[in-house]
Design goal:
It is built from no helices and 21 strands. It is mostly beta strands.
Length: 243
């Protein structure tokens, strides 16, 4: 049986699909999912921080070795879900990490190195006032220790590096010696968010549209990480409509 996890708004669901079998080891594609359990993930640090539209589970990742799932919130929180019993998962709020309002965009894990990786945009969110900073600014990738079942504790910060604008996906290679980070470079008209509390209104004139890029984070077995960048603006001088 294959276990899978899915997120929708503030929910993380576990589902099971039929085994894939046959003479060649491959059978027909699974036709359905069976719901095993559901757990609601808070958008903040408190178990009562539950609300629709807060991006509580913007992205999730599952550590099959330690049986923990991680969910990052658009409100700047990394939550840990204990899947020791897949039928009764538990949000472990005592292990949550405060990202200090950084808008998280992706989460990835390298279990063989005990690394938990979170990408955040250049934008910072304060839900009591407004967004500050700009998503057109450079983003970051943050590294933490992943949770060990033998001695669970809050993920410890290890390092962080700067990447391109709006890093939206982290993809490690097989041995996690190299991380590819897709920087979306999403544009903003005016480029500056207002302080009205909506977080989505731009002021000023003109389009701020950073180039998309891929940041390559090199992770040696010893020593600090290093970053190189593959710029995509060389593929085309502009992505603007000719008219």
């Amino acid at each position: 049986m294959l276990a899978a996890a899915a997120a929708s708004a503030s929910a993380v669901c576990a589902a099971a699909v039929p085994s894939i079998s046959g003479p060649s080891g491959l059978g027909p594609a699974p036709a359905s999912f069976d719901l095993v359990s559901r757990v609601y993930v808070p958008y903040g640090l408190s178990a009562t921080d539950l609300a629709f539209g807060m991006g509580a589970a913007e992205q999730i990742i599952y550590d099959a070795t330690e049986r923990y799932a991680y969910a990052v919130s658009e409100q700047g929180v990394l939550n840990v879900v204990d899947y020791a019993d897949a039928a009764a998962p538990v949000v472990v709020t005592s292990l949550a990490v405060d990202l200090r309002g950084a808008v998280a965009t992706d989460v990835e894990i390298c279990p063989e190195r005990g690394l938990l990786l979170v990408s955040v945009s250049g934008e910072v969110l304060n839900i009591r006032t407004a967004r500050v900073g700009r998503r057109t600014d450079a983003g970051r990738v943050l590294a933490f220790e992943s949770v060990r079942r033998s001695a669970p504790r809050t993920p410890k910060p290890l390092w962080q590096v700067q990447v391109g604008a709006l890093p939206d996906m982290i993809s490690p290679n097989r041995d996690c010696s190299l991380l590819a980070v897709a920087n979306e470079g999403e544009g903003v008209y005016g480029g500056v968010h207002s302080s009205t509390g909506t977080g989505g209104v731009a002021t000023g004139a003109g389009l701020v549209d950073p180039d998309g890029s891929v940041s390559l984070i090199h992770l040696p077995k010893q020593g600090p990480p290093s970053v190189s960048e593959v710029r995509l603006d060389a593929l085309a001088p502009s992505d603007e409509h000719p008219n």
